[in-house]
């Protein structure tokens, strides 16, 4: 009986034919792929449904919308070892020979030229004061109004010329101060660079104190230079206003001073206007500052 059963099972296997194997990946089928539907329609429309013909294996395509990026290997973050605070890096140019910065610009004026020009300005201002005295005498003794009008024009012109000389004198004083500060700043910067070029481990307490002194002096020099620039700007604005006022006075030609009984002392006004534009109380004090 057992032999008959085995023979019957083998016959059934021979009649059923080879088992179809369909390789398929674990990924789900693509809903937009119509290849499976076309295969089913061809099988239904075939004549007789031949079972003996070998069928091509169906391959499941990968879903393009189900792509996952491969996990990138995590980069291990290396932390710097904890320890003492790193030492201060050396100053720029460490190891190279230090060169002192030269302070010479296009507008640099030697000290000898400044003193020479200021002495010439002193002589010109003294001559103008003498001319002012002579004009005052003529204005007092002038009986004619027309001559007095011309003298007033000459007097105002003299004031304007004196203002120009006083302005130039003030510019020279500012220039001398500015150049002195620039030279001192170059010396301080050079000494500070020499000190910073020294290794920090070789520093003494005296070196640290000297560094603080040089830094404080450098800040003071910069503030003084800025103050000089601000003063020059203020003087320039005041000079523009004085020029406009002088031009208006020249147009009027001294009509307000032709009234009878008016006490007119042009030499006092001339001195007052000249001292107004000076940076110090007098020309001698401004020369000492330079």
Automatic annotation (TrEMBL):
SMART domains: DUF3585. Residues 47-65, 275-290 have a biased composition (Basic and acidic residues). Residues 111-138 form a coiled coil. It comes from the Eukaryota. Transmembrane segments: none annotated. Residues 101-248 form the BMERB domain. The lineage of its organism: Eukaryota, Metazoa, Chordata, Craniata, Vertebrata. This is MICAL-like 1a. It comes from Cynoglossus semilaevis (Tongue sole). Residues 33-46 have a biased composition (Acidic residues). The keyword Coiled coil applies.
């Amino acid at each position: 009986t057992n032999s008959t059963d085995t023979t019957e099972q083998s016959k059934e296997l021979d009649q059923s034919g080879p088992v179809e194997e369909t390789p398929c990946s674990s990924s789900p089928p693509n809903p937009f792929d119509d290849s499976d539907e076309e295969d089913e329609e061809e099988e239904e429309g075939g004549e007789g449904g031949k079972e003996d013909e070998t069928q091509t294996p169906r391959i499941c395509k990968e879903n393009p919308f189900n792509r996952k990026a491969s996990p990138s290997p995590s980069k291990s973050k290396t932390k710097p070892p904890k320890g003492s605070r790193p030492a201060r890096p050396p100053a720029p140019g460490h190891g190279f020979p230090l060169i002192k910065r030269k302070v010479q610009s296009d507008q640099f004026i030697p000290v000898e030229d400044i003193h020479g020009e200021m002495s010439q300005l002193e002589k010109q201002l003294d001559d103008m004061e003498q001319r002012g005295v002579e004009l005052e005498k003529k204005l007092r003794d002038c009986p004619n109004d027309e001559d007095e009008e011309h003298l007033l024009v000459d007097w105002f012109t003299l004031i304007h010329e004196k203002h120009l000389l006083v302005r130039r004198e003030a510019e020279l004083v500012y220039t001398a101060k500015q150049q002195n500060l620039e030279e001192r700043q170059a010396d301080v910067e050079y000494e500070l660079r020499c000190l910073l070029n020294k290794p920090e481990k070789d520093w003494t307490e005296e070196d640290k104190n000297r560094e603080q002194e040089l830094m404080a002096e450098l800040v003071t020099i910069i503030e003084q230079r800025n103050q000089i620039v601000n003063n020059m700007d203020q003087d320039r604005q005041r000079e523009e206003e004085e020029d406009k006022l002088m031009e208006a006075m020249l147009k009027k030609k001294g009509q307000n001073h032709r009234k009878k009984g008016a006490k007119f002392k042009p030499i006092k006004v001339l001195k007052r206007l000249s001292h107004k534009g000076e940076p110090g109380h007098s020309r001698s004090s401004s020369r000492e500052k330079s």
